[in-house]
Design a protein that fits this description.
mainly alpha, 419 residues
Length: 419
């Protein structure tokens, strides 16, 4: 039985929880911190949250704490790997970053996640390491992209495959557990927000540092941008994991707050955007760049819906939040159908190509998913269902995106060998 299930089953059994904690402190702490927001209100869970926070307070104050040392080591590994082209001049810098930047980032996140568990279970760690090695070898054996769109599409979809691998690690390979998938979506939202804050703070510090060195007649731009900035960029997601796991009471409140703020703003923006299209003179069926921007915007809206659903509280009666989600999902569905019709028109007019095929597949997936989500939210608003129904729809569909990305990575370079 997995640690998370054992913790939940023994929330009324202090002795068993203590045994679980002593059996594997690292795994207990990391899983408890992720699961605590859902267990808040239980008196024993409240006690353990305070206890773990108190235990960590003394540890975090020391530069020799195991958590900080693990974090620093993983960040150093990521920084070393991302600078391999500088260490070995024979490596083509552009090709290396196209193929390996995502590998370094997700590899660091996975390595740090396993280090928090003491690299247990060993079997899962070995399987994950094997998958990552095989993935790294495959992507690096592909020829350089150059003008070949099929190769570039493989590079662009590769991070989605790596995200799927990270999801497997997060859920301990429990492929059919929808609840863990939902936890991963919540966790991903928190990681994205924290990574963004870290990067923004890092950029501000970088700019300040360059300004300070400039005042004393030293040009530190090359060193700061090519070494410190690169190291910081690939390390930011790992540091975000550290913060999210160590301070769940703080980080778990940020995503819901942002969802409540930005969901209505996005809804208003989309309504204005759709109303402005006829006045802009842009033709979605003829303007390739406009269609590309349209699809990028659609991906952003789908991500906002996905992150907003778990952020809103479950209530007996539907309210303004559910109604707003319904409007947002319905508008996203309309946008998706417009984009889908445009890409089908362009395929009929100009034939298949790697780009059009990839966009077609992604749009078909999103159309079906948005239709299911919109139907589910409609049942919540006008029926007697809760957002749990929509969460199940959302999570059950997620593996299909990873499977599509995997198909693009594995097959497009060969199906479209000349494109």
């Amino acid at each position: 039985m997995m640690m998370e299930n054992m913790i939940r089953e023994n929330l009324e059994n202090p002795e068993e929880l203590e045994k679980l904690y002593r059996s594997n402190r690292q795994e207990f702490e990391s899983i408890f911190r992720i699961s605590y927001p859902e267990m808040a209100g239980n008196r024993l869970a409240e006690y353990w949250n305070i206890r773990l926070q108190y235990d960590y307070a003394g540890e975090a104050a020391s530069v020799h704490s195991p958590g900080l040392i693990r974090l620093l080591l993983v960040c150093l590994v990521c920084g070393f790997l991302i600078k391999l082209p500088a260490i070995f001049p024979g490596i083509d810098q552009l090709a290396f970053y196209e193929k390996n930047a995502a590998m370094v980032i997700f590899g660091g996140m996975i390595l740090y996640s396993f280090s928090l568990r003491g690299f247990a279970p060993r079997r899962q760690f070995q399987i994950t390491a094997g998958i990552l090695i095989a993935a790294g070898l495959y992507i690096n054996l592909l020829p350089e992209a150059g003008e070949r769109h099929s190769i570039m599409l493989a590079y662009l979809h590769f991070p989605v495959v790596l995200l799927g691998i990270y999801a497997l690690v997060f859920t301990s390979y429990q492929l059919k557990n929808n609840k863990l998938r939902m936890d991963f979506i919540r966790y991903s939202a928190e990681l994205i927000i924290m990574s963004g804050l870290i990067l923004a703070a890092g950029m501000a510090l970088l700019g300040l540092s360059m300004g300070l060195f400039y005042t004393i007649g030293m040009d530190a731009e090359k060193v700061l941008t090519e070494y410190i900035a690169m190291w910081g960029a690939v390390s930011a997601p790992v540091v975000a994991i550290y913060l999210v796991r160590r301070y769940p009471a703080i980080t778990s409140r940020i995503a819901p707050a942002l969802a409540r703020i930005f969901s209505p703003l996005v809804l208003i923006t989309l309504l204005i955007f759709l109303a402005s299209i006829p006045l802009s003179g842009k033709n979605l069926y003829q303007d390739r760049e406009f269609l590309l921007i349209f699809n990028i915007m659609l991906l952003a809206v789908v991500a906002i819906i996905a992150f907003s659903i778990p952020a809103f509280k479950q209530k007996t009666k539907p309210g303004i939040q559910e109604t707003m989600l319904l409007a947002l999902a319905a508008i996203a569905l309309v946008i998706n159908l417009l984009a889908l019709s445009a890409i089908i028109y362009r395929i009929g007019e100009f034939g298949f190509s790697p780009n059009k095929t990839a966009v077609l597949g992604a749009n078909l997936l999103m159309s079906a998913h948005l239709l299911l989500i919109t139907t589910g939210i409609t049942r919540v608003v006008f029926g007697k269902k809760t957002l749990v129904l929509v969460e199940n729809i959302l999570t059950a569909y997620l593996p299909l995106y990873v499977i599509w990305a995997l198909l693009v990575v594995l097959t497009f370079p060969f199906i479209f060998a000349t494109n």
